[in-house]
Amino acid sequence: MTEKTIGVLALQGGYREHGAHLRDCGIEPVYVTRPEELDQCAGLIIPGGESSCLRRLLRGFEVDTAIVNAVKQDGMHVWGTCAGAILCADSVVGEEPCLGLIECEIERNIFGSQLSSFYEEVSIPGICETKERLVYIRAPGIRRIWGKTRSILTSHDVITAAENDQVLVTSFHPELSETRAFHFYFIAKCGLASHDARPHEWTRTAWMERG
Amino acid sequence: MNDRYEINVNLAQMLKGGVIMDVVNAEQAKIAQEAGAVAVMALERVPADIRKEGGVARMSDPALIEEIKNAVTIPVMAKARIGHFVEAQILEALEIDYIDESEVLTMADDENHINKHLFKIPFVCGARDLGEACRRIQEGAAMIRTKGEAGTGDVIEAVRHMRTMNREIAELCGLTDNEVYTFCKNHGISVELAFKIRELKRLPVVNFAAGGIATPADAALMMQLGCDGVFVGSGIFKSGNPAKRARAIVMAAAHYNDPKLLAEVSKNLGEPMVGINCDDLSKDARLAKRGI
After folding, report:
1. Does the A5-210 domain belong in CATH 3.40.50.880?
2. What single-letter DSSP state applies at residue A125?
3. Cβ A44 vs Cβ A77: under 8 Å
4. Distance from B150 to chain A by nearest Cα, in Å?
5. Which one-letter DSSP state was computed for residue A126?
6. pLDDT attached to residue B274
7. Which residue of A44, A156, B38, B195 has the smallest Cβ count within 10 Å?
């Protein structure tokens, strides 16, 4: 059996950006579009994109059911960024939840339209010790958490990162800025080893070259 | 490059692999969202009707744009006339997500495009070749699309525009440093941007296909030619079964390299939009020549 790696759901949205960041962390990602590709994954990143679109595409080959089974039966880890976080939540304000992998209630576009998209510089003990830039694009926010979910970060009175033992959700996009802190954190959470494999200074077009 | 521009380019990145659909009311917007559109373009008339009815085509009624914005959670785009910076100011005040400075509307200025650097809201602009794409990026566009020939249902112009961009980028990549300057002169683009494109071997922003896409096969064709996503204008709501066609085109854009799936989703879609053969259009009827 080949060694497990990190998968990135590659149906729509910012999957190449995550792929480029994973390569910069010494991980060769597998792009997932079909259920059988999940067999190679110790962890799966569900990227930003449009959650209503991703939701429809996930249904296409029953990738949604396969993800839930992999998490519940095989112990696969999942990290949802932005739209991916909406898909992971147990509850979504105003609509039916999708995968239901983490005990929290999330609200889409909580900060408003594109004109309200923003970035912030934060440090988070255990994840990034120095200040790193986080980008929020029409971001969702977590209204409340319960059960085994822990809050990791709050911004403008809204929880923007949370986790349980297997699942991480972030409202922001660490794949869109220089920071690799969350990628290193998720790789470790999946029980895999990482190392610094960034060839040169990061630019926002890195996904075009390395994705 | 300022932070606002970066954030606007970032939104376009999140649309990659998706389909942006023209809608003329809240009901169509909901159908588009349910079918899996990544954004909607709010319009009073789709390009096929603009073409048929003639007259001056302007920015849509803000009340209609707001109605559509309130009906969906996906990003909402709207069109401003080329060079009409006040229409753009109004669209920004409506707090939509993206402005399309579009050749589909009648031009307001036949010399100048909007200085898009002055806005907080992102812009997408049409282009027929590398020169047009670069000039729009230099003016502040955060996303590019092919112009194609809107409202025809004929994909030939979109193919021409994408092939032209690809060919010109390949040509640029084959040049020595010393030759890039003349290339820039000939194409009317900045040296800095040309070097960047040569390094990346593609445009430095997201590039979608638009203008004449009417079937799942059309969408997959444009994706295989290297587009990052697809706009479908008249092709959906001018067809016999819009919801089914919309879902099929969404699947086709995501799985564009899977002919078996393309065959499956292309079955029984009902009547496509009637279409106009682009080669039958008089020179004056071509929208793509507006704003170069």
Report:
1. yes
2. T
3. yes
4. 24
5. T
6. 75
7. A156
Task: Return d(Cα B11, Cα B75) in angstroms, integer.
Answer: 9
Cα–Cα nearest to A33, from B17, B134, B46? B17
Confidence at residue B276, expressed as pLDDT on a 0 to 100 scale: 85
Q: Nearest chain A Cα to B91, which residue?
A: A115
A17–B13: do the CB atoms touch at under 8 Å? Answer: yes
CB < 8 Å to B6, chain A: 135, 204
The stretches of B144-290 forming alpha helices (DSSP H) are: 156-173, 177-187, 191-200, 216-224, 234-237, 242-254, 259-265
Confidence grade of residue B163 (pLDDT, cut at 50, 70, 90): very high
Mean pLDDT over residues A163-179, rounded? Answer: 97
Which residue has 């040296």 as its token pair? B191
Residues of B in contact with A108 (CB under 8 A): 73
B269 pLDDT band, cuts 50/70/90, is very high
Q: Do residue A49 and residue B18 have CB atoms under 8 angstroms apart?
A: yes
Q: Which of A98-112, B9-23, B113-127, B230-244 has the lowest mean pLDDT?
A: B230-244
Instruction: Supply φ then ψ for residue A185, to 5 degrees.
Output: -65, -45
Nearest to B130 by CA among B44, B50, B220, B190: B190
Catalytic-residue membership of A175:
yes
ipTM of the complex: 0.95
User: pLDDT, tens digit, for every residue of A97-122?
Assistant: 999 999 999 999 999 999 999 999 99
In terms of DSSP H, where are the helices of chain B?
3-14, 26-35, 47-53, 62-71, 85-93, 130-138, 156-173, 177-187, 191-200, 216-224, 234-237, 242-254, 259-265
* Cβ-nearest to B121 among A60, A109, A115: A115
Do A57 and B247 make contact, defined as CB atoms within 8 angstroms? Answer: no
Between CA A131 and CA B230 the distance in angstroms is: 37
Q: Cα(B51)–Cα(B150) distance, rounded to whole angstroms?
A: 9
Judge: B120–A137 Cβ closer than 8 Å, yes or no.
no
- pLDDT tens for A62-102 read 999 999 999 999 999 999 999 999 999 999 999 999 999 99
Per-residue pLDDT for B285 more than 90? no
Closest residue of chain B to A140, computed from CA coordinates = B73
Length of chain B: 292
Predicted local distance difference test score (pLDDT) of residue B1: 52
How many other β-carbons are positioned within 10 Å of the β-carbon of residue B198? 16
C-beta atoms of A205 and B200 within 8 A: yes
Where do the structural domains in chain A lie, given as residue ranges? Answer: 5-210
Across B92-105, average pLDDT: 97
Q: What pLDDT, on the 0 to 100 scale, is given for residue A206?
A: 92
Q: How confident is the model at residue A1 (pLDDT cuts 50, 70, 90)?
A: low
Query: Which of B7, B38, B204 has its CB closest to that of A12?
Result: B38
